[in-house]
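Posted in: Structural Biology > Protein-Ligand Complexes

Title: Requesting predicted complex, adenosine monophosphate in pocket

I'd be grateful if someone could produce the 3D structure tokens for the following input. Sequence and ligand are given below.
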Amino acid sequence: MNIILFGPPAAGKGTQAKRLVSERGFVQLSTGDMLRAARSAGTELGQRVAAIMDSGQLVSDAIVIELIEDQLDTHKDAAGFIFDGFPRTVPQAEALDATLAKRDMEVDAVIRLRVDEDALLERVTKRYEEQGREDDNPETFKKRIEAYNAQTAPLLPIYAERKKLVEVDGMGTIESVAGEIDSALDRKKGGATEKPGFFARLFGKS
Ligand code: AMP
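-- Reply #1 --
Done. Output follows.
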């Protein structure tokens, strides 16, 4: 089963993804974690994306798509993937469909963590104090929220139309959010889906 954990920055996607990894044996693919690892390792990629990440903007689609494809190849025998922070744009979502289809897979569910933006700012201020992530400072965080609303949120109606979208209240405790996700996934196992190719039809591409 392949799941997208969807929601604005600091909605709790990473926490829930890690739980699903330990409880269900899925592989978490977080493009944010991969980019931060590249920066810590001082790779050429890490140096290239540093300023963009620190400004709260999105790095190019090509970069994150390549990271995801490498990981899909690395974990060929995974029980399933949890995409965390990817896709964040329409081209990324199209690329994900295409690359999964090549591997005889598809997106099975998109779990949206619904959160309140003011509460997020509080969460992130705390994380900034604890972890010192430059892009968590309040000014940059507002830019990240803007990027989410402008470039990522438009994916929601698309996945809703494909009957992939499941809405979960992300403002509860970690345990209550986990419980909602678990029941949503169990329901989804037998649920209706649209085949890949949907984006191609929607955007008139062949
Ligand atoms: P995150 O930890 O997922 O919020 O990601 C931190 C930063 O990494 C984002 O603000 C972007 O600059 C970059 N990033 C992570 N994932 C993506 C993505 N799928 N597309 C573009 N940029 C990304």
